[in-house]
Structure formats: C-alpha cells, structure tokens
Amino acid sequence: MILFSIQLILTVLSTIAYAIFGSYPQGILGILVLAGIALVAFLGVFVCYFISGTIYIILNTKTDPKNMGKHRLYNEIGSYLFRVLLRVRIVVSGLENLPKNNCFVAFANHSELSDPVYLKQILKDYPMAFLAKEELFHYPILKQLLISAGCIPLFRGMDRKGLQAIIDTIKAIKNGQPMGIFPEGTRSYSNQMIPFKAGAFKVALKAGADICPVCLYNMQGVLSLKRIRCHTAYIHVCPLIPYESIKEMDTSSLAQVVQERIQIQMDQFEAIYGQQPKAEGQGSC
Q1: Which of 64-73, 114-123, 227-236, 273-282 has the least mean pLDDT?
Q2: Which of 207, 210, 176 is nearest to 99 (CA)?
Q3: CA distances (Å), 235 to each of 39, 69, 88, 139, 198, in order?
Q4: Which one of 96, 129, 220, 223 is CB 3.0 to 4.6 Å from 150, fit for a cystine?
Q5: Domain 89-273 carries which CATH code?
Q6: CA–CA dist 149, 179 (Å, integer)
Q7: Which residues contact 112 (CB under 8 A, 6 or more apart)?
Q8: Domain residues of the chain, as ranges?
Q9: pLDDT for 279
C-alpha cells in the first residue's frame, strides 16, 4: 500500500506543477517546486495513514490483540514514518533464525526510542506486543493504541501491580502472542549495552517460551533532527534459544547467556562498521 502511494505521488507531481505554473517549471525553480510538492505530498500521505489507522485501531481496541490486520497496519504506519520520512535504511540479517511459532519472547538491546517500531517490523509476521513502561499508558490515544496491540504496562518495583504485569505477560505468551522485552530497562543511546536485568527473563521461563535474541546496532541517531543524509542501522536475529535448553536455568544465568549472544553480534558489527559507522552509517538510502 505504501509503495503504491509513493508511486501515485510521483506520478501526479508533474501534473500539479503544470497546473500551478501553466507549464512545467525548468531549472532550479522546477527542482525546488517539485521537491516542495513531494515533501507536502509525502507528509500528507502519512497524516492520512496515521489518522485513518488510529481511528481503525481505537475502534478495534477490544478485539483480539492477536488480530494480524491491526499489526500489519501498525507496521505500515511505522515503516512509512521511520523509514521513508526519516530516511532510515535498515540492513537486516539472520532472518533464517526467526521462530517457527508464536510461543517466544524477543529480547533485544535498547538504544533509542524507536527500537520497538523496528523490532516489530522485523517480526512483522507475528502479532508482536511489548512489555512497555507504565508511563506510556498515561496518554489517551497512545494508551488505546498500545492496549489494542496487546502491550502490557510495566510498573516499577515488585508490588501488586508489578506482579500482575508479569502474570498478564505470561498469559499472553501462552495464549499465542509473542512479547518483546528490552531487558536493559532503559535506553543506552549507544552501541554499549547496560547489564540485563535478570527479572525480565522470568516471563520466558514461566511461559515455557523460546527466546529470540535480537541485536540492534547503530540505532542511535535514527531520530536525530540534525542529520541531513540518510542513516543506516543494522538488525540481526540471533539463533533461537529453545525453552528445552534453558528450562533448568535460573534467571541470572539466562540473562548472562542472552546478553553474551547479543554482544557477540555487536562485536561483529563493530569489527565491520566501527563504533560509529561513517560511509555505511550515513550513506544514501
């Protein structure tokens, strides 16, 4: 749908320019006019997608959170905003390691606010939801969008609400909705990971779920308003860790194993692209 919209926009640009000027503008003026029309058109398409998509998702808040129609719509809007408008190129590897069923938890390092959007797009064939911080559920429209997708608010501490969040997450996974968790607990804003919190792995063990480690590299800068050129980020799906191989492990040991798996891939990315990729990281889309 998005590609069709882009093609349609490019098709009508010259027609709009002709209608405005009575002829096709030439030279630098023509380039600036077409660029301005293109920018407005691309923003207009996103606004239309966002408004119509938001209305649809809110109206279907109480329907099954595993409904793939809603999740595909999330991915369409996210892809248009974070890839097309923000000019971000994502290089993906390890897709052969994707889970074969929905009984899994995706654990990834967390460096930028947009990480869940990209992780969800990589796992686009699953009704992926997230264990999200409770503060995000304070905003009316955002709250409805998160609930509609099956996201669960994570309360700080291990009080009654915190325990209920863990129970709800376990139930969701057992019911066939994979969950995404960022076990660092906060954003690092870099390619250096913060030690994983062991408690984050309790849900996988209690739900009898496989673990899908995902490495996000060079995500910082995705939302930068200062950059002019396109930004390249890298995502690798690490080999799946079956539940049968971890069911006897404690959460601390499991946290260390998963972090080491992701760190190995981080080191490989760094060896290839450097800590701050230059030509690759700031190249053309």
Answers
A1: 273-282
A2: 210
A3: 28, 24, 13, 30, 23
A4: 129
A5: 3.40.1130.10
A6: 11
A7: 187, 189, 219, 220, 221, 222, 223
A8: 89-273
A9: 36
- pLDDT tens digits, 4-63: 455 455 555 555 555 555 554 555 666 666 667 666 766 776 677 677 777 777 777 778
Predicted pLDDT at 227: 77
Q: How far apart are the first and last CA of the chain?
A: 20
The rounded distance, in Å, linking the Cα atoms of 58 and 70 is 10
More confident site: 254 or 87: 254
SS3 per residue for the chain: CHHHHHHHHHHHHHHHHHHHHCCCCCHHHHHHHHHHHHHHHHHHHHHHHHHHHHHHHHHCCCCCCCCHHHHHHHHHHHHHHHHHHCCEEEEEECHHHCCCCCCEEEEECCCCCCHHHHHHHHCCCCCCEEEEEHHHHHCHHHHHHHHHHCCEEECCCCCHHHHHHHHHHHHHHHCCCCEEECCCCCCCCCCCCCCCCHHHHHHHHHHCCEEEEEEEECCCCCCCCCCCCCEEEEEEECCCECHHHCCCCCHHHHHHHHHHHHHHHHHHHHHHHCCCCCCCCCCCC
Measuring CA to CA, which residue among 128, 253, 278, 106 is closest to residue 183? 106
What is the tens place of the pLDDT at every residue in 201-259? 999 999 999 999 999 999 988 887 677 788 899 999 999 999 999 999 999 999 999 99
**Type of residue at 2:** I
**Nearest in space to 85 (alpha carbons), one of 16, 9, 147, 180:** 9
